[in-house]
Write a structure and sequence with these properties.
heterodimer; A: 657 residues; alpha/beta; Rossmann fold; Pre-protein croslinking domain of SecA; 3 domains; seven-stranded parallel beta sheet; six-stranded parallel beta sheet; B: 708 residues; alpha+beta; Outer Surface Protein A, domain 3; 5 domains; seven-stranded antiparallel beta sheet; four-stranded antiparallel beta sheet; 22 helices; 52% helix; elongated
Amino acid sequence: MGPPAAEMRFTPFPERRLETKDGPLDRAARSLHGIIAARFLARRAALRSRAHAVMILETEIAALASPAMTAAATELRQLLRGRKPDPFAITKAFALVREATWRQFGFRHHLSQLMGGFALLDGRMVEMATGEGKTVTALLAAVVQALAGRRVHVITANEYLAERDRDGLAPIFELFDISVGLIRPDSSREERRTAYACDVTYCTAKDVVFDYLRDRIALGRRRKRADWLIGRAFGDSPDQCVLRGLDCAIIDEADNTLIDEAGLPLIISGSTDDAVPEEVYEKILVFAGGLDPQEDFRIEEAGRRAVLTDRGRAQLDAVAEWLPSPWSALKACEHLTIQALQALHLFARDVHYFVADDKVQIIDDFTGRAMPDRTWSLGLHQFIEFKEGLPTSQERRTAAQLTFQRFFPRYRHLSGMSGTVLEVAGEISRVYGLRTIRIPIAQPSGLQHRGTRLLPTETEKWAAVAERAAQLASTEKRPVLIGTRSVAASERISAALAARGQPHEVLSARQNSDEAIRVRMAGEAGRITIATNIAGRGTDIPVSDHVASMGGLHVILTEFNEARRIDRQLYGRTARKGQAGSCEAIVSLEDDLFRRYLASFLVNAVKHLPQAVLTRLGDALRQRAQTRAERRSAMLRGIAQEADRRHEQSLAFAGQE
Amino acid sequence: MWFRVAKLRPRLRPDVRVRRHRYRGEVWYVIADGSTGQLHRFTVAAFDLIGRMNGTQSIGDIWKELVRKTGRDAPSQGEVIQLLAQLHRADLLHTDVPPDIAELENRSRKRQTATFLAPIKNPLSIRLPLGNPDALLDHLQPLARLIFSPLGLLLWFLVIAAALLAGAIHYTDFTHNLSDRVLSTGNLLLIALLHPLMKLVHELGHGLAAKAFGARINGIGIMLLILMPMPYVDASDAGLLANRYHRAIIAAAGMMFELFIAALAMFIWMIVEPGTLTRAVAFNVIVIGGASTLLFNLNPLLRFDGYFILCDLLQSPNLGTRSNALWIWLAKQKLLGLTNAAPPRIGRGEVALLALYAPLALAYRIVLGIGIALFVAQAYFVIGVILGLLSLAQTLLWPLLKGLRYLAGDPELAERRMRAIGLTLAGIVALMCLVWLAPFPHKTSAQGVVWLPQGAHVRATATGYVTELHGVPDQPVTFGSPLLTLNDPALHARLKVLEARARMLELQANAEWVTNRSASQVTEAELAQARRAVEHLREQRDRLQITSKAEGHLTILRADDLPGRFVREGDVIGYVLPARSDTIRVVVEQAEADLIRSRLRSVSIRIADGSGRILPTEILRDYPAGTRVLPSPALGPEGGGPITIDTTRNDNPQTLHRLFELDLVLPPNVAGAYFGTRVHVQFRLEPEPLGWQLYRAARLLLLRRLEV
């Protein structure tokens, strides 16, 4: 492994150019191709025969001693380079990795993992069932690409997983003389540079985007290598970049990164020199609080924004008079008022943010985690702070921003894995040009689905969940994982359990320091763990054979998500690698999903039905609501992408992003 | 996104030209792109920002300065970005960052595609640029200054006034049978030769005027207007001039030149002898330079000279575009509820003008497009149909497609897409209902003549020479009174022969009855035949005596040379005109006849006597057989009627299409309903949806073209 060569030049790096000629027809065709290719053009037979070829080499490789394996890998390096690497070299490399895994962990890649590895090498989006061992699948592709001389970023769902995978797999990389680095959120710039200098780097998507943005800020206008060299001559180029290039990325939980979070901008901010004085926030917040929700402004709920009516706008004059110079401009004033209205009416404590250490921390809608380094922009953050009675932080000005959807296409070799991606194959193809392939499961799943219980009210739901969990944990001594969608929900179920005197653990965004230990302990017999969606991604909750024999981990889903994929992810926490496990859903008609995506008359009609009928209807109602929700979010994403594209076009005068 | 913009140090491209204009009391800045000559108009507020962009100050600093200065009405950062984007799209911006080459290339390719597609999208107006005579015209600048000096203009007015006076004096002489003279074949050739020359003069006028006031010419070329080549000159740079009268004069200069030439031609026409080529040329120059130019170019509803003159004089630049924008904004605001859409800028007192222009222009363009297509279709059917479809596509389909694209994909709609689509569908359904279901009054009109009652015609009932006139012309006659006697010597002789033969056969039969019974029977048969023949000839002889079959005044055609004239059986010799007629004969075409037979509700007539009275009536008789002979020449082209005559048959005029005749009741007590008076007839049919009415009309048109 060793530290990267000190003389390695961190110069402006290679990346793929973003396609600008794309027309609407191109996009539609790509989308269609993605859907058709995913369903009908998978060519799994070819993958299977390649995988079998790897397995044939098993005995031959097994005979090699470790130094011989290192030597064999070194020999392969030459053969793997270039545009068309030797197919046999790849096969052999896979066989070597497989053998190394056996020696390290005591299991060998099975057929589906090998197929997945080949698909990743081909630059595909691979759908593999949850619990199929995606980590080692990524290992295959990472090793081969690293041997081929590419710089590989393995993008994991969170830093915990990044660390776990790096630590677990480091011996194997070491065996093949591949250096491996890890980016932690708290890594220093120097550490990061070292980590990126490695052949393989484990990191989260956010980290790599932020590093990329920081590099771009540091480079300023001198983004091309030649430019940079000129800059060096004049002494105005930065010495080194942190990244070495966007060469090759293997994204785990790709649907989350590339679809759900794709449009959220990651913002690097620098504080502005002309900050808004506190009195402005105060006055505007007071003014906005006095506005009438019908007459003066409207909330466009679905669009998640507030809009002033003409009457509301007419009142701006009055408040503008009281504001200091630049904010007395009516347009600025209106803008601030809208932000204040949104802070007051659209953002709720413990749903969108929570307060810790006198600070407002944004909750990631998808993982339920706190995002300590992010702030809302354009004054919104300050209004929320003010609303909560916290000291207002300096407004920070955006210095650079980027979305995943504009970042990941810049990789020269992109591939990804997920348990649940087939539904969005069209979108993946349209935006990233990746073809999706589904790899069949190797082991039959031992998951038992105990069905959906639909209850009329939320109170009944929490009672039912607590009762069920207590029953399983104390009488059957099985571990129980309760998945929630928000910190508030976690707290309510925690209270319900506490009321029954049932010991339990709450994993929520507020306390993520000892997360890893808690996750590992969640599989112990009789343990109840409450977790927000965080638990739904990549985490492996180890279950002992003893526990497995009792039926394994039981997962209770307490609220359906808008996308089926995310529900499946949560269920996927149990019954991993062929073990036993069970899951069920206990939900109520008052849940967000039903309230938002079912007609209210339908909900009201169903509410008064007897419980037995309601239980039967549960799945049908969920299907309907989720189908509507998915369609809607796909539409909103499409709109956002289109708006983003147009926006980018109109900003062409500012040079490339 | 401000962070990407704030540090830019942009400036306007060095080759742009900026002028300060005043429209309706408001100050605007007009910027001309140096390379393409395109003009862009900016408000004072926008120019406040643009003017500060000098390439050394960053946008962030400029904005801050602006906010300090203007305070309350300062633009937001978003607006600044929008303005920059607008400047960039117009290619007016020069920034200190390396341009995004891919984006530039993309745009230039789009522009190329648009240029390539333009003639296909709008084949009725194709521009072929030929070059730029700007430098050449510069040499003529002194001349231009002279022409467009106050003195020149005064001279122009004098000449035009004199010509008008002359024209007024010779008005009848000049306009006598104008359409015949203009549209005769020989003259059309002359016009075809003179027209391009006149248009050259016209364009020269624009060019010189532009030079006189210091504007540039961006190019000249040939425009294929409805496939007819016309020169054009691109003087859009004139829009940069601050003086609106100068701009208006440049737009009007073409017509002024043509009118001047026409005025000179008027004097020549007066001086030169009739019948000479010079006079014919002068005549046509007057027609082209005077009438047609004013009709064609002065119309403000198309983007010709008149439009620009109107824009300049009313100080409403870009009237058409802005009028469309106003309507689009209204639709967004009121129908889609997009209350955030920025309202178009409307100058003082401009609202009514903007509100009116777009619908008028659209309606006019549609009518004109269909008219042109029909016109071309008469000569070249297939080309005409294609052109018609294309021009319809241009005026209706492209905007429709754009609208659909907006509905399907514009991010602006986001939340309201369903509402927008719903409204559109509802609109379409409503329109469809209106067109295909809602009954509309349906009528068809025709022309007829007051017809004589049965028996009013005095016809020769036999063939012969007129020997005697019994009735006195213009005197009343009674029913059955003798009118004429004819003589047919041959008939008399034949009768005598036959009578003799009958007598002979009678005798012979009598004789044979005794001697030869069987022969007698043969003879009897011959006798019977002979007798019948005699009977027939006697009837003919009786018919030589013509009697009146009606009561009324006798009118004899060419009464003077009547005695001794030879007439054939059936010839009309005169009329017995009753005190009043009771029928009207109408001819209608086949399709109309069908409609009238199946869907008639009521009939009304208006007699062409100037009274304008409309009278209800009903159908008296309907002749099922078609005819190609007109009942009265008044209905043909010679008489100013609507029916076309097949001109290839000179000897025996027949109508081009088969016609059907109907007789209508002429209501009693109608004054002025003289025989042969033209009658306008309106058949009110069962109400029918407009769609079906149009479909029928289109089908008829097509079938007629295809001679089916």
